[in-house]
Design a protein that fits this description.
single chain, alpha/beta, Rossmann fold, Transcription Regulator spoIIAA, six-stranded parallel sheet, five-stranded mixed beta barrel, 38% helix, 21% strand, binds S-adenosyl-L-homocysteine, binds iron/sulfur cluster, binds FE3-S4 cluster
């Protein structure tokens, strides 16, 4: 990647945005008084979760408070995903439901942003279909959110801002919740897997400066954050175009910061280096967890997907990772029903899943995306076959997950307690180093603590544990 494609938002532009946020604050203090609420609905991947935390940061600068109840909100944001058709349809349904709220409160500011909006022509189409959507912006314009809110508050009917130039903006305020934080290390993707919309809506790959990332990690450590997830669509190509920067070097330095746990995602099998695995194995704080999407176990399909590795190469990486870290937790993404996938191709995927023994797998039915190469292939697979294949794949993976969880029973692990378990009163939930979620009983609030537990029982998606008496 050349330097020209890495468009940094200047400090002056950022200062301007902070001024807009202050102007919005003053305006709204007069108009609404000090009580005003925002509600954000986030769809898609961790990248979007991280973006929503930045939007929340700006909104709190503007004097809004968060509410989980959208009927109370003065401002609602839909941060969208378009990776599959099912996501887009669900989001359209949810935006449609907001119409009733808008009719009761015409001052309600409805914003739609994120990947769906970044698609060509999508913003216009959306505002035509849902005229109550007043603010629309793409993934590259997030940094200018305060300006858009200022525009609609000062009388402009709508604000729409979709630009093609990918940006890297530092100093956007962030609202984080919980004991784990996200830090984006690179934006965009240059891989153009033939099925995938992400490179079109997130732009060309661009990495943040290593010094900025490390400063952020130190600040998080000082704020008491215990776990950080380093984010990127392809973290293994971090640092391309920046002298002296590479993902293994970043990991090595991140390990020195002293945050209890560091995880990262997503890795790409064509780019992950042996050096990254060695740094993981030799580190103190880099978790032994690797999310390594395989997508298919058939070389013909992998070629058609433009993934640029073979099933054999993938299994070699798995073997190398396990040799260095026998306790590693491997997870993956798999697509079934890619154009041209035969029963034999699909069986090769099942074979690979048996050989790799993933802790868990995210499984998807192929969904054609407008503008991508695979959408134009003429050997599309029927909905019925996709469904039948995904059912078989999930059944196999469930069996393997159960076996992995069973093997954990009786072992001692350290859990970073993230908070009370969602559906089990009296219990806390957290993850062990390899990423598996553990529920365990505790009389005291252990949120944010590293708790030694013995695993006592395997469940479908989680395991149960018991706090070990302190030695
Ligand atoms: N950058 C990551 C993740 C990208 S999106 C990676 O390279 O793996 C997350 C997952 O969604 C992908 O790994 C893929 O399995 C799935 N996905 C992407 N496009 C899809 C499509 N058109 N249909 C079905 N699944 C898709
Ligand atoms: Fe999409 Fe492939 Fe990039 Fe992942 S690596 S975001 S699947 S194009
Ligand atoms: Fe979806 Fe955009 Fe993530 S399309 S998966 S939210 S990068």
């Amino acid at each position: 990647m050349s330097e020209q494609t890495r468009v940094a938002v200047s400090q002056q532009q950022m200062r301007q945005q902070h001024q807009y946020a202050q102007m919005v604050r003053t305006l709204l203090d007069q108009k609404l008084g000090p009580q005003r609420y925002y509600h954000i609905r986030t769809y898609g991947c961790q990248m979007n979760v991280n973006d929503s935390q930045k939007l929340a940061g700006y909104l709190e600068q503007m004097g809004y408070q968060q509410t989980g109840d959208e009927t109370r909100a003065d401002l609602i944001v839909f941060n969208t995903c378009c990776v599959r058709d099912s996501a887009e349809r669900r989001i359209h349904g949810h935006i449609g439901q907001i119409k009733a709220l808008y009719e009761q409160n015409p001052d309600l500011i409805v914003c739609v942003c994120g990947c769906m909006v970044q698609q060509e022509g999508a913003a216009q189409a959306l505002q035509q279909r849902f005229p109550f959507v007043r603010v629309c912006f793409g993934t590259h314009n997030l940094y200018a959110f305060p300006q858009m809110i200022f525009q609609v508050l000062s009388g402009q009917k709508r604000a729409r801002s979709i630009i093609d130039a990918p940006t890297v903006a530092e100093d956007v305020p962030v609202v984080r919740d919980g004991v784990c934080a996200y830090t984006t290390i690179m934006y965009g993707c240059d891989n153009f897997c033939s099925y995938c919309i992400v490179p079109y809506v997130r732009g060309r790959e661009r990495s943040r400066d290593m010094a900025q990332i490390l400063d952020e990690l130190r600040a998080l450590r000082d704020q008491g954050v215990h776990e950080v997830m380093l984010l990127g669509q392809n973290v293994d190509s971090y640092g391309k175009g920046i002298d002296g920067a590479s993902f293994d070097k970043l990991l090595e330095q991140a390990d020195q910061v002293g945050i209890d746990r560091i995880r990262f995602m997503t890795s790409h099998p064509k780019d992950i280096s042996g050096r990254v695995l060695e740094v993981m194995a030799n580190s103190r704080h880099i978790c032994h967890q690797l999310h390594l999407p395989v997508q298919s176990g058939s070389d013909a399909i992998l070629t058609a997907m433009n993934r640029r590795y073979s099933a054999q190469r993938y299994l070699q990486i798995v073997q190398q990772a396990r040799a260095l870290m026998p306790d590693i937790g491997l997870t993956t993404d798999i697509i079934v029903g890619f154009p041209g996938e035969t029963e034999a191709d699909f069986e090769q995927t099942l074979d690979l899943v048996r050989a790799a023994r993933f802790d868990s797998a995210f499984t998807f039915k192929y969904s054609p995306r407008r503008g991508t190469k695979a959408a134009q292939m003429d050997n599309q697979i029927s909905a019925q076959v996709k469904k039948e294949r995904i059912v078989r794949l999930i059944a196999l993976q469930d069996e393997i997950t159960a076996g992995v969880h069973q093997q954990l029973v009786g072992t001692r692990q350290v859990v970073l307690a993230e908070g009370p378990a969602a559906r089990s009163p009296g219990q806390y939930a957290g993850r062990i180093d390899r990423g598996v979620t553990v529920n365990f009983k505790s009389q005291t609030d252990v949120t944010g603590q590293l708790v030694p537990v013995e695993i006592t029982q395997a469940k479908r998606n989680t395991v149960m544990g018991q706090i070990c008496p302190q030695a």
